Structures are given as structure tokens and as C-alpha cells.
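Lab notebook, bench 4. We co-purified these components, and the gel suggests they stay together. Before we commit to crystallization screens, I want a quick structural picture of the whole thing.
Request: model the full complex, all chains together.
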Amino acid sequence: EPEVTQTPSHQVTQMGQEVILRCVPISNHLYFYWYRQILGQKVEFLVSFYNNEISEKSEIFDDQFSVERPDGSNFTLKIRSTKLEDSAMYFCAGRAASLVNEQFFGPGTRLTVL
Amino acid sequence: AQSVAQPEDQVNVAEGNPLTVKCTYSVSGNPYLFWYVQYPNRGLQFLLKYITGDNLVKGSYGFEAEFNKSQTSFHLKKPSALVSDSALYFCAVRSSGGGADGLTFGKGTHLIIQP
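Here is the predicted assembly.
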């Protein structure tokens, strides 16, 4: 069964540094998402991406964040200048074309900002 | 704005007993409702969904959920709990309308099945 994969599984960085989190969605998926989960808290929506552009973003997704799908397979989340409060688990998700389809999540990347 | 409430931080059930994990929601228009499960240090795993039709939906691992429009609820149930069901369960909602596609999650409920 195809799966969403994410790399790295754990990223440790210094405050102010740039990080790129990578995701390889399931091949027939067309809609892509990033969510984050701060330790002990609920999963929060960051951004959705379709047809090579952002279709929706939350208030969390400020100018420090960006997403792209550079080569038609990888889907990346970049944080330009990390802050302590960016420490969280980041999940990539994708779904197939129909709106009724569920989103499939990757295993997550744990980002620790020191 | 849409929202999900999971009123219980933790639910304790003896193995073999029925379990219920509660969820209520608020959304504009008709809802699409989902349950996901998260095991320690793992991602979110899809369990089941309600889109339309029969109010009782069945999903993976013997779980089912009942959609109640008048009570805006979507409680997760299982007739006989297993120790392996112990995990963190999230209810999520999105509107069936076009546009906003991100899921809104509840804060999660820890389900603990005692042997």
C-alpha cells in the first residue's frame, strides 16, 4: 500500500536558521497539505497546495513559511528564520481528486529549535 | 469558523467492554467528518469518515461512528475494546462546500484499554 514519506524524521536547528522539511506524497494525489502539532496540543492546519499554488493558508502560515513542489514529486515546507515556538511535529498530507476523499498523513518530522 | 470539541482528555475502558469517544463539531453547511488515530511517535492514521448517507459508518479495526445532525455529533464507537486500541484519537471536520479544504481537528482523546 502506498504511503506518504517525510524526511528527516527529526531536525534540530538553531533559532534563526532556515529549515526545509520534505515530503513525498502518494503518486496519484493532487492536493497537498502541511499541518503541525505542538507537543501535547492538537493538530493545526498550516497550508493546502494544489496545481502548484497555495489554495488556502491559516493565520499560522506567515511570511516565514513557504511551500513548493519543485520537481513534481517532492513537496517541501521551508521556514526561513526559525523561532523557538516553531518547535513541533510537522505532518505532510495528501488526497486524491475528489473532495470526499480522506487525507493521508505522513509519519511527521519533529522539528526542535534551540 | 469551524471547530471540533472532544470533551474528554482520556477515556478508560476495560478490555472487552464497549467504548465511546465523543466528538461534537461546528461547521458552515454540511460537514465532512473524520476520525484519525495516532500511536506513539507515529503519524495520523485514517479510521473512518462520514460524507453523506447512512448515519452509521464503519471503518478500520472494528470501529464505527454515528453521525447525529441534530446534536452535531460524531461519536466513535467499538463494541468490544482491545488493549491494542490504546492510542490518541482525533476527530476532524471540514465543510462540504468548495474552497476551504484544511481539516480542523479536536484536541484529541487518549483511549486507554485496561487488560
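Residues 16 and 82 of chain A are 5 Å apart (CA to CA). Worth comparing against the SEC data before the next meeting. The mean pLDDT of chain A is 93.
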